[in-house]
Amino acid sequence: MPRYRTRAETAKDVVSEVVVNIPLYLIDLQEPSFSLKSRNQIKDSVRDELYEEIASIDDRINACSRAREAFSYAILSHRWGPGEPDFGTIVEKGGVTPASNDTVLSELQGYQKLLKFCLEARTLGFKYAWADICCIDKSSSAEWQESVNSMYAWYANSSLCIVYLHGLESLDELGKHEWFRRGWTLQELLAPESLIFYKDDWTPLDPVNLGKGKGVNDKLNTKIRPIIAETTGIRPIFLDGFYPKSNKQPKLVMELMGWASRRKTERPEDIAYCLLGIFNIAMPILYGEGDMAFHRLQMEIMKRSPDWTLLFWGGLQSSYSNLFAIHPRSFDYRKWNEEAARLRESLLPGEGVGYHPGSLEDETTAPPHVLTQNGLCVQWDTYPVEKLNCRENKHTKDFIYRVKATGLTEIFFRSTTGFLEPPKVRGHFYLASIGPPSPGASSIPVWLVYNRYVKNSNKFKALLRAEPIVAEKLPGGQGINRSFYLDVTP
């Protein structure tokens, strides 16, 4: 028979379960030095009184809640600047506070920001704090990998995210701040349940928050919330709470990508890495791979989600596959044609309900795609191309296409990359619908594809389009539903 576990042993299990989900290192605000403590050090410092208190709680959910409260921490979101003290510096100095004795370090903008963050977190009643400036040991490849893949969860598990907006002096300037144009700050906005903005002088952006303590959330602030929504394009349902792992919150890949479409990162790889948590994906961090990082991210999304809106983008394609975009900026619907932008709007699920392309529970959607050795297996409606003309604009250096397919109205589109038009290219051209967008819709999003394989009539090549192509069905026009493979190579 299995041995009966004592309450004390169960309490230790609860503490271990909670501690493993906190960051690898936290700043200990209970010590005057504000020194860094590892997970194991924090766990070893737990007093018997806490174990006894947790052991006295009969319900495990409440016991875990009490343990999370004991290890709650504030987390910093900011824009990096000059003079940021790293992990090695803080360890060498013995903590954040002793570093003030270094006259050179103490005058640096980055150090003052870190110190004031720690002081503010302690004033708000926190025992622990986390800042990416000094709480990640980048000299350890393993710890760096874990940190990047766990970053979203660490922000989500925090009790409060303190956003410091350097140079900001008033609410009127909020929407123009650089913080809204950086890649990593997107997850720092979405993940935390509670968030508070601080101005340049380290006072709350909204004066009403002064002295309120932990119970503040500027994502729900009636003065600030509309500015966030307008600036980022994030709908209220996701400002109320964004849950990457939840299937009950309808989400579209193209909408999530759109949030990052106007954001920048210092390194090209980071535009993919900063989106890992938002798409609930973990993958190897390989700096030096360049655009391959965003290609790998899209491959991982395709493997996990049947949502075809991953393919509803416009602009330059990936260097590794014509199916994928080269950057989230291709999902910036504000640059699309009016019909494509309108179609995108009609596809967005409602506040918790609505049509969800790719949902396995919705029989109106196309069957899910499957990635195979032969390419991406899809089952789409295809429309044979009757006429296809392509000419180059000598002034703009782009190509203008005119396409007429059976059952669809004639469409025009531009591309910065051209291809040899028939009859110079062997094969058969089709417009392939990646929809349908909604039941009974007359407009459908399409790809221009062609069959270049004489011996394999079911293998096609996806061609570039400069923006999402939207075609209108003619009265009585029906596509030929077929299963075929799309190349995932350029």
UniProtKB/TrEMBL annotation:
Pfam families named in the record: DUF8212, HET
Among InterPro entries, the record links this protein to: DUF8212, HET
Q: Please, which domain of life does this record's source organism belong to?
A: Eukaryota
Instruction: Tell me which residues make up the DUF8212 domain.
Output: 293-323
Coiled-coil annotated spans: none
**Residue limits of the Heterokaryon incompatibility domain?**
73-167
The entry's protein name is Heterokaryon incompatibility protein-domain-containing protein
Q: Which organism is it from?
A: Collybia nuda
